[in-house]
Design a protein that fits this description.
The protein is of the alpha/beta class. 21% of the residues lie in helices and 28% in strands. It is built from five helices and ten strands; from the N terminus they run E-E-H-H-E-H-E-E-H-E-H-E-E-E-E.
Length: 193
């Protein structure tokens, strides 16, 4: 069965974006060693145009062959003219407000997103990358099998949290931990079921 992995960047205090939804402030902490490791381990998480710019268009997907994002996350790419930001993956956007997809390569999921994710997990293939954001992660928190949390050395103080899931203790097991000279920490947790 495929896994749903929340692969996400966050500040030390758990914010994935500023209050307006912009996460570009994390880019200042992408030093060469960290970037090389992340691009090498997770090349499929780079948008298709960025993969081309970096000469990674032929990089083999190691973890994911599908991406699931919320409407706000998808619209960030749309504002830049990317209707199919991850053309190298099966793309799904969870939205109650988007009607038709602006691109035939992007499927809109409405209604019971958790049920649809369970269906996707039953299909053969690599894992499913939960790309964002907080509302969607909150809706799917019980379906997330793995968390790969890239913590950047910044305290934001406010913004969009990693998830809006409501309080409950959900046990995780630390399965990997890496730290980098630039102060980034990548923690991988598996869900204890």
């Amino acid at each position: 069965m495929r896994k749903l992995t929340y692969f996400v960047g966050t500040s030390v205090d758990g914010y994935i974006a500023d209050p307006d939804g912009d996460g570009d402030f994390f880019n200042r902490w992408v030093e060469p060693g960290y970037a090389k490791d992340m691009f090498g381990e997770f090349p499929e998480t780079l948008p298709t145009p960025v993969r081309a710019e970096l000469g990674l268009e032929g990089a083999v997907a190691r973890h994911f062959d599908a991406v699931l994002m919320g409407r706000a996350t998808y619209e960030a790419g749309l504002r830049l003219g990317m209707t199919s930001p991850y053309a190298h993956l099966d793309q799904y956007v969870a939205s109650r407000s988007l009607g038709a997809s602006p691109d035939p390569a992007v499927q809109i999921i409405s209604g019971d997103v958790a049920a649809r994710v369970r269906q996707l997990k039953e299909r053969p293939g690599l894992g499913i990358w939960l790309c964002g954001g907080a509302e969607l992660a909150g809706q799917l928190v019980e379906e997330i099998d793995e968390f790969v949390v890239k913590t950047y050395p910044v305290f934001a103080g406010a913004g969009i949290p990693m998830a809006r899931a409501g309080f409950a203790t959900r046990e995780l097991e630390l399965t990997d931990l890496k730290h980098y000279a630039g102060g980034q920490i990548v923690s991988t947790y598996a869900r204890r079921r």
